[in-house]
Amino acid sequence: MAGEVDRERVAKYVVARRGSLGLTQEQLAERAGVTVKTIYNLEAGDRWPQARTRSSIENALQWRPGDLLRVGEGMEPLGLSLKGGPDEALRELSELNAYFADLRANPGEKRRMALAFLRALYGEPGGR
């Protein structure tokens, strides 16, 4: 690892991915074969897990090997592991499209909450 890992960025991505999979911290920990405290520490940006633990978490998140490190180095994850396959990716894209269509049609509280979440995840546009 050449530079520092942006643990805060990794935390945001892990929380978002876990949420998109509909998993609790406990469920993710169980799938990865790690403790809930390990997931909590990762999502809080407190600790950087060892390579074997990262691999288990990536697998549980249906990410490709090395995606946590890629995110921590400022890149995007390569995406779904082959286990999910293209059908799973298309299903997720369709689901996201439906969510955004709903948000476009709903200027109320749901839209404000979604924007707040996206801003927290990605930061303010043009800021910082």
Automatic annotation (TrEMBL):
PROSITE patterns xrefs: HTH_CROC1 (PS50943)
Q: Which CDD domains match?
A: HTH_XRE (cd00093)
Q: Pfam families given for it?
A: HTH_3
Q: Where is the HTH cro/C1-type domain?
A: 14-68
Identify this protein by name.
Helix-turn-helix domain-containing protein
